[in-house]
Write a structure and sequence with these properties.
The structure is a single chain. Strands 1, 4, 5, 6, 7, 8, 9, 10 and 13 form a 9-stranded antiparallel β-sheet that branches. This protein is mostly beta strands. The chain has one domain. The protein contains 1 helix and 13 strands; from the N terminus they run E-E-E-E-E-E-H-E-E-E-E-E-E-E. The protein is elongated. It is 3% helix and 62% strand.
């Protein structure tokens, strides 16, 4: 069994600060520009813990449960006027994960791996929590050669994992999938 806890401090984190507004006549029509500048007027800390275990139910069956949680706290420094970066950072990380992995060995080199996991919601992004189920069979035909078939994200046709409102990355939409793999190690 493993238990880990941590605490981290962060200084001078990025903030978006308003600059002096001005009027601009080009391009037409004339308009008011509300500029912003980047600054480092935020501090914060993270703390969390994880517990994991490995249980040999039998000589052929292993269960590996785990649970972790994390909290992020951001604090604006004077004279920051940024009211978005702190809550966005705090709400863009799931507060908790829970997982259960199972590995079962059968005769003739066949094994079955299954994993079910729960991921908490992302408050700032409006991403709901989700549960994911992955499973796969592997046949070790002979030393160094194996054939596997896997299914991933089997509980739903698709689920959302992340949204980047700034547009730097695309939203991460995970679809149910299947694949086969032939491995030859020499």
């Amino acid at each position: 069994m493993d238990l880990a806890a941590y605490y981290n401090e962060y200084d001078h984190q990025i903030t978006t600060e308003p600059a002096t507004p001005f009027f601009e006549s080009t391009p037409l029509p004339a308009h008011l520009v509300l500029p912003s500048v980047m600054a480092n007027l935020s501090d914060g800390e993270t703390h969390g813990a994880e517990v994991a275990a490995k249980w040999n139910v039998t000589t052929k069956w292993t269960l590996t449960p785990s649970y972790d949680f994390e909290r992020i706290h951001m604090h604006r420094r004077a004279p920051s006027q940024d009211t978005e970066n702190g809550p966005d950072t705090e709400g863009s990380d799931p507060r908790q994960h829970a997982r259960l992995r199972s590995h079962l060995e059968f005769p003739r080199g066949v094994s079955w791996d299954t994993s079910v996991s729960f991921t908490d919601r992302l408050l700032a992004q409006g991403v709901p929590s989700y549960t994911r189920l992955d499973t796969g069979l592997t046949w070790r035909w002979k030393e160094g050669v194996s054939l596997s078939a896997f299914g991933q994200a089997l509980l739903r046709a698709q689920h959302l994992e992340f949204v980047d409102e700034a547009g730097a990355t695309n939203a991460t939409l995970i679809r149910r999938s299947w694949y086969a793999k032939l491995s030859w190690r020499f």
